Amino acid sequence: MTKKKEKPIDLNNIKPEEQLKYEIAEELGLLPKVLETGWKSLSAKESGRIGGIITRKKRQMKEEALKEEENMS
Q: Which of 19, 21, 23, 29 lies at 20 to 30 Å from 60 by C-alpha?
């Protein structure tokens, strides 16, 4: 059985929601590992760290948007 070869990742052509994930991986120093071997190569701890930071940043963005909306009213 042959292993499916994953296509290379084009960082200039990714969806906005995916871009945040790649930015956080870069901040944590995991981007080279992801680009070389894919997301599946990350440990549960590494993946969880990325997920936690994504959740925190999304929450912050939502709170900031609500504050802006209140200031505009």
A: 29
Please write the tens of the pLDDT for every residue from 24-70. 999 999 999 999 999 999 999 999 999 999 999 999 999 999 998 88
CA distances from 64 to 19, 53, 71 (A): 20, 16, 11
CA distances from 14 to 10, 11, 20, 21, 38 (A): 7, 6, 10, 10, 15
CB 30 within 8 A of CB 50: yes
Chain centroid to Cα 16, Å, comes to: 10
pTM of the model: 0.77
* CA separation for the pair 42, 34 (Å, rounded): 7
Question: Which tokens in the block code for residue 5?
Answer: 């070869």
